[in-house]
């Protein structure tokens, strides 16, 4: 069973990963986006860290994720804020007010969160978006957390030869081919942080 402290550690690990990789995310975003993905996401996750530090205790896992989602929506510019915010808010809503959640409940909640992201963005796997990391990553949670991190990272790398069909990169047409999608890359960071937390590495 996973309690609120586990979710705090996960979000802190995700924040640390975004801090570490912000420049790389922005570099990936430069040729096919607005060259701001890393900076925007870093601002959002630093705000999440501050919001969690200020949160009244005890806050259940679902409440923590909903707080994080609301914070990302209010602080991250562009499409990333609503998409990441929707992912965490919907996941948190699915978890409800339970003080502890099972791994299966978390997988099901994340699956609902990914579905909400797909509906919001009107995207599907293969469109060269964050879903190319999230969908295989969450599916692999049924095997293990480590497998989820691996699947998400593989999914992000697999976006490189894809033609972008959604988002800012889609405006570039064939020029989007040959570049790894920054949203898929940051989504893989989130799931790797979850895997590291579950395995005691964070």
Question: Overview of this structure, please?
Answer:
- The chain is mostly helical.
- It has a single domain (about 1-200), classed as DhaL domain (Serine Threonine Protein Phosphatase 5, Tetratricopeptide repeat, Alpha Horseshoe).
- It has helices at about 5-30, 35-55, 60-75, 80-95, 105-120, 130-140, 145-155, 180-200, and strands spanning about 1-5, 100.
- A two-stranded antiparallel ribbon has the order 1-2.
- Helix 1 runs parallel beside helix 3.
- The longest helix has 26 residues, at about 5-30.
- The mean pLDDT is about 95.
List keywords for this structure.
202 residues; mainly alpha; Serine Threonine Protein Phosphatase 5, Tetratricopeptide repeat; 8 helices; 2 strands
Task: Describe the secondary-structure layout.
Layout (H helix, E strand, L loop, with lengths): L1 E2 H26 L7 H18 L6 H15 L4 H16 L4 E2 L1 H19 L9 H9 L5 H13 L24 H17 L4
Helix pairs in contact: 1-2, 1-3, 1-8, 2-3, 3-4, 4-5, 5-6, 6-7, 6-8, 7-8
Report the total helices: 8
CATH homologous superfamily caption: DhaL domain
CATH topology description? Serine Threonine Protein Phosphatase 5, Tetratricopeptide repeat
Helix content: 55-70%
In short:
The protein has 8 helices and 2 strands. With about 200 residues, the protein is an all-alpha fold.
């Amino acid at each position: 069973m996973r309690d609120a402290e586990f979710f705090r550690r996960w979000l802190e690990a995700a924040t640390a990963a975004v801090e570490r990789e912000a420049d790389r995310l922005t570099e990936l975003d430069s040729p096919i986006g607005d060259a701001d993905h890393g900076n925007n996401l870093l601002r959002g996750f630093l705000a999440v860290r501050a919001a969690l530090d200020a949160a009244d205790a005890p806050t259940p896992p679902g409440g923590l994720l909903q707080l994080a989602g609301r914070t990302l929506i209010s602080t991250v510019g562009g499409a990333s804020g609503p998409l990441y915010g929707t992912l965490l808010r919907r996941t948190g809503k699915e978890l409800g007010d339970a003080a502890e959640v099972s791994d299966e409940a978390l997988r099901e909640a994340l699956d609902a969160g990914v579905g909400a992201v797909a509906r919001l963005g009107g995207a599907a796997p293969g469109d060269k978006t964050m879903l190319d990391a999230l969908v295989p990553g969450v599916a692999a949670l049924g095997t293990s957390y480590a497998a989820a991190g691996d699947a998400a990272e593989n999914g992000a790398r697999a976006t490189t030869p894809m033609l972008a069909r959604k988002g800012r990169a889609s405006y570039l047409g064939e020029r989007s081919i040959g570049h790894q999608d920054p949203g898929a890359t940051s989504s893989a960071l989130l799931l790797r942080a979850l895997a590291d937390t579950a395995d005691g590495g964070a």
